[in-house]
Amino acid sequence: MARRFKLHDELVEKLGIQNCYFQPPESIKLKYPCVIYKMDTGDTQFADDVPFTFRRRYEVIVVSKDPDDELIDKIAYHFPMSRFGRFYTSDNLNHWTFQIYY
After folding, report:
1. Cis before residue 67, ω within 30 degrees of 0?
2. What is the mean pLDDT of the chain?
3. How far is 86 from 48, CA to CA, in rounded Å?
4. Cys-Cys link to 62, which of 30, 40, 47, 96 (CB 3.0-4.6 A)?
């Protein structure tokens, strides 16, 4: 199974949310609260000038009408390789961005 699918399954299971979207197209009507994620970048570790490990980094955005949504704490708790990015509002919706190495 591709790593992205494992991440998707873990987001759904650990966060307890079915509205989880990978790079949703404009035609999809999102249901809130939701999680939107995409591959962001990667991190390669080298040993003796040879690639040793590679970790993908995903940008994960939690979108909710609730400014105190518990999904934020769940991400920090269940994904130890995560880092909070920023918070912003758009169209009366709250957005929290995270970077998760997975």
Report:
1. no
2. 92
3. 36
4. 96
CB 31 within 8 A of CB 63: no
pLDDT per residue as tens digits for the range 13-51: 999 999 999 999 999 999 999 999 999 987 777 888 887
> Alpha-carbon distance 15 to 77, whole Å?
10
- Residues present in the chain in total: 102
84 Ramachandran zone, left/alpha/beta (phi>0; psi -120 to 50): beta
* Distance, CA of 61 to CA of 64 (rounded, Å): 10
Supply the pTM of this predicted model: 0.86
Structure tokens at 46: 């080298």
Pair 93, 64: CB distance under 8 Å: yes
Token couple for 73? 């704490």
